[in-house]
Design goal:
Pathway: Cofactor biosynthesis; adenosylcobalamin biosynthesis; cob(II)yrinate a,c-diamide from sirohydrochlorin (anaerobic route): step 6/10. The chain is α/β, with parallel strands linked by helices. It is 33% helix and 21% strand. A hairpin with a 3-residue loop joins strand 4 and strand 5. The strands form 5 sheets. The protein has a 5-stranded mixed β-sheet with strand order 4-5-6-9-7. A 5-stranded mixed β-sheet has the order 13-12-14-15-16. 41% of the residues are buried. It is elongated. It folds into 2 domains: 183 residues, CbiD-like (2-Layer Sandwich), CATH 3.30.2110; 168 residues, no CATH class. Helix 1 runs parallel beside helix 2 and helix 10 runs antiparallel to helix 11.
């Protein structure tokens, strides 16, 4: 490859509150690569940098790299710079192969390393390349004004090696096969963005609901997933959806999508935080659940000396193991019932809710089924 050097680091890419550097989405990179290829093809001169508009109206300039140019097609790529976000696609080459088409307009497809949609429920129809609507609009916008005489453009986006990193994304769970997705809503990758993670979770529910399934099993993470597999009968693997720290948000999203039954499985270190009214369970927003669990046990009539000893323990896991060892394991079932009541109150009469609490090994220790 030749052409453009460096990975653009404009001052506007620094986040005001954190001082961290924003990155560019795969959609932004694809749009810039497409414009570079079209300019090269039309003007015969390779543009080392191209300017494109982001969805919010801001213009950004990215370096592009030349791949090849023929008489009717050209291909450029942009090296993705994810800024200070630990993005799995950081440093990957996002290619756009642009060729003249007889019909007016812009036709967009995916090539090597770009996944293909195999399940309904996503914003892209089954069978099409996993290039989301906003990146498609950005690519078309980047080619606006660069109209070949009497025709249009065909653009093929590819990401060499995309199939090798797709397993580190949600794509396998979403039914996107063979590579990564071309994504982006603002054009920027926000560094270590909780909001970006939050936006990535509801599509898991969309795909499950579109399959006709009326039951979903929500888990905070791997511990809950392991425990869910031990339920009798266990849910199907595709029914288990991780919510991370967005417990309240994902409960609401599941309810709004009309799931008739919501099964909640996880460690009380996460789930019992809602006893304090904390539905976003990240440590930045919610304190430990220790105090809430001990207060619950005290209200249930546990002896004062045991309550005092529980207060000296530093983790929820230690507290629940002490309850089991002291013969009060039934309180964990009562705790699950209390969590179930709070969830049902939040969601209203729509879905039926079941709660299963587990230990760190994924063993079920308390249930409100």
């Amino acid at each position: 490859m030749n052409g453009g050097g460096g990975r653009g680091r404009g001052q506007k890419r620094f986040c005001r509150n954190s001082g961290l550097r924003r990155g560019y989405t795969t959609g932004t990179c694809a749009a810039a690569a497409a414009r570079g290829a079209a300019l090269w093809l039309l003007e015969g001169r390779f543009p080392e940098r191209v300017a494109i508009l982001l969805p919010g109206g801001e213009q950004v300039t990215l370096p592009v790299h030349a791949v090849f140019r023929g008489t009717s097609a050209a291909q450029c790529c942009v090296i993705k710079d994810a800024g200070d976000d630990p993005d799995v696609t950081d440093g990957m080459a996002i290619h756009a192969h642009v060729e003249f088409a007889a019909a007016p307009g812009v036709v967009i497809d995916g090539g090597e390393g770009v996944g293909r949609v195999t399940k309904p429920g996503l914003p892209v129809p089954v069978g099409e390349a996993a290039i989301n609507p906003v990146p498609r609009a950005m690519i078309a916008g980047a080619l606006a004004g660069l109209v070949p005489t009497g025709g249009g453009w065909k653009v093929t986006v590819s990401v060499p090696g995309g199939d090798n990193v797709a397993w580190r994304t949600f794509n396998p769970r979403l039914g996107i096969a063979g590579g990564i997705s071309i994504l982006g809503t603002t054009g920027y990758v926000e560094p270590r963005s909780l909001d970006a993670l939050r936006r990535s979770l509801p599509p898991l529910l969309d795909v499950l609901r579109a399959s006709g399934c009326g039951e979903v099993c929500l888990v905070p993470g791997n511990i809950g997933r392991r425990a869910a597999r031990r339920l009798q009968p266990p849910p199907a693997e595709e029914q288990i959806v991780e919510v991370s720290d967005f417990l309240g948000f994902m409960l609401d999203e599941a309810s709004q999508r009309g799931f008739a039954r919501i099964v909640l499985v996880g460690h009380p270190g996460k789930l019992a935080k809602i006893l304090n009214g904390d539905w976003q369970t990240h440590s930045r927003f919610a304190g430990p659940a220790n105090g809430a669990i001990i207060d619950f046990c005290a209200a249930a009539g546990l002896p004062e000396d045991l309550i005092r000893r529980l207060g000296e323990l530093s983790t929820v896991e230690a507290i629940q193991q002490a309850l089991i060892n002291e013969g009060y394991g039934r309180l964990l079932g009562m705790l699950a019932s209390r969590i179930r009541v709070l969830v049902q109150e939040r969601l209203g009469p729509g879905p039926y809710v079941a709660v299963h609490l587990c230990d760190l090994q994924g063993n079920i220790v308390g249930e409100a089924p």
